[in-house]
Amino acid sequence: MTVSPTRPVRSRTVRLAALTLVAGLTLAGCSDDGGPVSGDSLQVVQDPERAEPAESPATDVEPAGEVVPADGNVTALAASGGTLAVAVEGENAVQLHDLAEPGDPRTVSLPGEVASLRTIDDRIVAAMPDADAFARIDPDSGEARTVEVDGGPAAVAERGDETLVALRDDQTVQVLDAQDRPTRAIGGELYSADDVLVADGGAVVLDKLRTAAFSLDLDDDAIGEGLRAGQGAAMADTDEFGRVLVTDARNGALLAFDAEPLLLRQHHPVEGGAYGVAYDAERDVAWVTLTERNEVVGYSMRGGQPEEKFRLPTVRQPNSVTVDDRTSQVVVGSAAEEGIQVIEP
Fold first, then answer.
1. How do strand 93-98 and strand 106-109 relate by DSSP bridges?
2. Which of 94, 164, 282, 324 is the most buried (most CB within 10 A)?
3. pLDDT tens digits for 146-160?
């Protein structure tokens, strides 16, 4: 386990600048004529829709690393201890690859199609909203333990002994105890609960319809303050500095939020169709896929702003990306049937 580096020291000037930026983003919601949208300062448009990745051109550069088939469009990836989990569109299953020799996966059957994958405590967690369930998968044995949760579970996180489940359809976060029994549902301010993340002891809910991030108060069972997450919040991950990283697919940016209290610390422009994001704790690098360019870019997150360290060509339509915690291998998934790309930067 890598020891988390010391959080960078920020000057009073930087803090004030960040607060000013947050205030501007919080108040920026507007209608087509420039006025507020139904009095909601966080809503971007009258009829909100989740941001989609920019369409990729045909690849004209050979992808970096090794590419193996995936038998369809890759929709989600997660890696743990040298094992890669892959979700493919239209399949009620997850493929498990050995990253040392990818290409001959084991198949884990599940009760529904997987919308998201995440590594939690050496287990791979698959959320299946249409099946009202999520599953914890042992990457070594391939054994899957399914937990039923009504409301369209879109993503899962853990905080201490509690499991947090973002319910997309119910617009709430369901809290489960250590035995996966529901204890309470927290909601009231969300249009859609698309993701939930835990960082530095705090919990954050990502509402992609509203393109906003909200703090989750587990002590008072309430949705707390909300901040705009760009013009089109897409994918999210956490880093070793206790921050939640979010890509803005419409405006092209990488955002970094402190979770406790919720505060926008960084807003870094990313040209080329930013979409997928994954964090490498070993190198302190955030990997962001660029679907307009068929590229993946690695940013060092140690300083006051992300600093580009890597830029590599990818398979077409690189909507998903993950990093293996043991090997720091970067894996990119193609949503255009061009397979899985394994990179050793």
1. antiparallel
2. 94
3. 999 999 999 999 999
Domain ranges of the chain: 12-343
What pTM does this model have?
A: 0.87
Residue type, 23: A
Tell me the C-alpha distance between 288 and 275, whole Å: 7
Domain 12-343, what architecture?
Answer: 7 Propeller (2.130)
Position 123 scores a pLDDT of 96
Whether residue 3 is predicted with pLDDT greater than 50 in this model: the reply is no
Residue 245 and residue 254 in contact, taking contact as beta carbons nearer than 8 Å: yes
C-alpha 215/C-alpha 227 separation (Å) is 9
Give the CA diameter of the chain: 57
Of 325 and 25, which is predicted with more confidence? 325
Mean pLDDT of 38-47: 62
Q: What percent of the chain has pLDDT over 70?
A: 86
